[in-house]
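Changelog-adjacent note: as of this version, every example in the card shows the full chain rather than a window. The one below runs 126 residues end to end.
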Amino acid sequence: MKKLGFGLLVTALALGMTVIGCAQDEANAIQGSWVYEDGWEEFVVTFNNGNFEFRDGGEPYIRGTYTVSGDTITLRVTHEGNWGGDGWDALDADDIDEEEMTFYLDGDSLILASDAWGSPITFTRR
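Full-length structure tokens:
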């Protein structure tokens, strides 16, 4: 019985490490800058080791931290851009927001889907 219990424990640990490894692979795969152009403006999102930044037409828009779990990315918005400058304004604790999105990677494309956006948006690696 001890051998069976030990075998189950080893299997459970191996599966857990595989899931963590996959999440880390996905988190590493989205590192860098991604651009979306809608014909009017250019939106750039940069993911860098747990921090993200969105820029709208080169202007600061939002930034904060992110986590990845499977195909879900959770953005925790902690700063807003101060329009007309290149700076960031920290949000009050009550205003900090989290947004969950589903993401897919397809070569040099990052597809982000959010209920708030309606339809998925495809960013291209910069």
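Structural remarks: The chain is about 20% helix and 50% strand.
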